[in-house]
Amino acid sequence: MKVAIIHYWLVGMRGGEKVLEALCEMYPEADIYTHVYVPEVVSETIRKHRVVSTFINRLPRAPRMYKTYLPLMPLALEQLDLRDYDLIVSSESGPAKGVIAPPHALHVCYCHTPMRYIWNMFHDYRASAGSLARLAMPSLAHYLRLWDVASAARVDSFVANSATVAGRIRRYYGFDANVIHPPVDTAAFSPCSSSELGDYYLMAGELVSYKRPDLAVRAFNELKLKLVVIGGGEMLSEIRRLAGPTVSVLGPQPFEALKHHYARCRALIFPGEEDFGMVPVEAMASGRPVIAFGRGGATETVANDLTGLFFDEQTIDAISNSIARFERMTFEPEAIVAHAQQFGREPFIRKMRSHIDFLFAQRARSETAKQGSARHELNPQLTVS
């Protein structure tokens, strides 16, 4: 069986690329197609595969300005020649599912989220854009929405990374989706002894506006409690300016440093709404509880009062009240780690294999039924037992 994996762009190693790595493990001979490819910033697992980029990769400054070429990506996808493939797995967050699959092929879309910049977060992105982009975005987004909905019909089966995303797929595309949570390398994390625990809280991940890192920093400034912030992103400078004397902004850190802080923090603070959110799972795999905004993917990974707790509003008061409640509670690291294991790499691969095998078996049964029906039409006296 010849397999093609379509991934939106390869310009770093984030959650989507971790899913791609697991797909590469499932299909070690698969070819990867993507809009932009920067080999030196992706893992060896991905680099081992044949990677084919669209014409977007040849446009000026594509590795940094790839999102400005978004309106051209539908055209780029439709130019890919996939006639030789039996299975196509598209990894969708930016445009990826819009390829034209051959009639005999099965097309499964693993959807991290429908493109947030044209759907659920369009107004957030437009509000933060420059004046020229703000003027152009409505008409461009309208065109992309029409194409995005039309291209959804090219998919045989949607798999969503969370129930939250499955709901968006149903609302925007009109299709149901199976939910298979993405793979988190839970084995890479481990708890420390109670004597090694620190006196600080932790916020980790990319510092972008929709994740509301500013909210957590302002809350800890007021509480005068210690908060360590790990991560880069467009808001790093702003977060450093906001940070009071009890907030340490470390910026991007190597994995070992992140792992160290996960295991030793009092709890992870997760103030944004994510589609799934790997960071809370990584913290739980380290034995630490999570204090999260009670919407989005965190509600599917954090077990309230067992592995963490939720706050209902994105306000300083809500975060402060949840921390006060947390301080009165006790959590068992062993139970937290055990809970996190269900989101590991092996469960993801097992569930994806099972789903794809089921789809192929279903297709085979359908073809057999069609052949039987055709024989009956040619010879009405033929009965099929």
Output mean pLDDT: 94
What overall geometry do the principal axes of the alpha carbons give? globular
Report helical residue fraction: 40-55%
User: How is the main sheet built?
Assistant: 7 strands, parallel
Q: What portion of the residues fall into strands of 2 or more residues?
A: 5-15%
Distance between the termini: 32 Å
Please tell me about this protein's structure:
The chain has 385 residues and is α/β, with parallel strands linked by helices. It contains 15 helices and 13 strands. It has helices at residues 15-26, 44-47, 62-65, 73-78, 122-128, 131-152, 163-173, 213-223, 236-242, 255-264, 278-285, 298-301, 316-327, 333-340, 345-378, and strands spanning 3-7, 31-34, 51-53, 87-92, 106-111, 157-160, 177-179, 201-204, 227-230, 247-251, 268-270, 290-293, 308-311. The strands form three sheets. It has a seven-stranded parallel beta sheet with strand order 3-2-1-4-5-6-7, sandwiched between helices. Helix 1 (15-26) crosses helix 15, helix 5 (122-128) packs antiparallel against helix 6 and helix 11 packs across helix 14. The longest helix has 34 residues, at 345-378. The protein is globular, with a radius of gyration of 23 Å. The two termini are 32 Å apart.
In short:
This protein has 385 residues and is an alpha/beta fold. The chain is built from 15 helices and 13 strands.
